[in-house]
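Sanity check

After download, print the first record. It should look like this:
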Amino acid sequence: MKSKSKKVLGWGAAVVAIAAVGAGIASWQPSIAPLKETDHQTFSAEQIARGEKLAAIGDCAVCHTRPGGERNTGGLAMTIPFGTIYSTNITPDRETGIGSWSYPAFERAMRHGVDRDGHYLYPAFPYTSFTRTSDEDLQALYAWLMSQPPVRYQPPETRLNFPFNIRQGIAAWNWLVLQPGAMQPDPAHDQAWNRGAYLTEGLGHCSACHSPRNILFAEQGGKAHLSGGVAEGWNAPALTAHSNAPISWNYADLLGFMRSGYSANHGVAAGPMGPVVNEGLSQLPEEDLQAMAVYLASFNQPQPGDDETTVKQQLLHREAQAKTLASEGARLYSGACMACHAQSEGAPLAGVRPALALNTNLNDASPDNAIRVVLNGIAAPATPALGTMPAFAGHLSDRQIAVLLNYLRTEQAGKAAWPDLQQRVTALRNAR
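Expected structure tokens:
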């Protein structure tokens, strides 16, 4: 697998290098004149309020705020196989932010991935999704951003390995991947579905994390769309029928999860999804969440013989039986997990206590998410009512975590044990 990955990356580097050379001359973009300090822009209160909601669904603050930094001032490090990208300052500071950007400059960045100075933006900024936003919504988002307090902060410089540090190469990538322009309604579907599609595929950019990438690191479409991806080292699960979850995502589960970060049939939001719910989805109007749930549920149509009640009863019965087993895994579960996860809803403990037999992470083909949750816990839940989970990195050895997780996977989730699990626990612990 390692040699194959190196070959893929090697071919990818070669493609980008050739494209960069060919695109260097043709890819030049002019700068757009900066706003003058004397220019006065006026926005309506309605525009600004609308823009605030759009910024929430676009997760602007999630990516453009570094840990401990002021909101939207940038500096968040995003590590990719080719180096580190730092998010930019999007406050209206004239020197370090976007305070000198006119609306045409902002629109070009959102639709075409080119900044005010004519520099190509790396698609870690998901303009391939943002381009689908309507003119009216882009204008409202611009109004809100330019109405916020300016904060002077210069983020670190993005540093990528050759040839990915040649920004002109993005011109060729855009030519292959980018389809600029606002999203149009699909007449085959109703208003709620179309509204959900617009929010999910546009500013919501759900596919940026929840879709796999091809050799050029572009999102795969077709049947692979929303079938699962990777975000910040976490597996972003499939939002379609490709999901490994024992119970399919339905409208009610999707709506509840986006609103609160929790679904009794799937578990709680952890890792990068926590801030997405906290800073973004939970702030949206109910009708927008309902529309998104309608759209996403359309990818999870019930299959013949799929009886949610029966599946749930079988898995919960297996979980109850597993608690009586006298194995090392059962003893670890008893000491580390049972006090919370064996409590039923309504018990005196605060927060939610998901049924582990139904947990999406335990049913996934990869153990990474489950390992990360056990190692790191959940100190900052997506919403306060969920409660926290302690980290076990300092209490359990790699071997114990592997034994515990394979016990939960085999005896409660009913899946085959993950192979080489202890080695994977060690690798993720060392990468913390």
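If your output differs, re-run the checksum step. Summary of this record's structure: The chain has 19 helices and seven strands.
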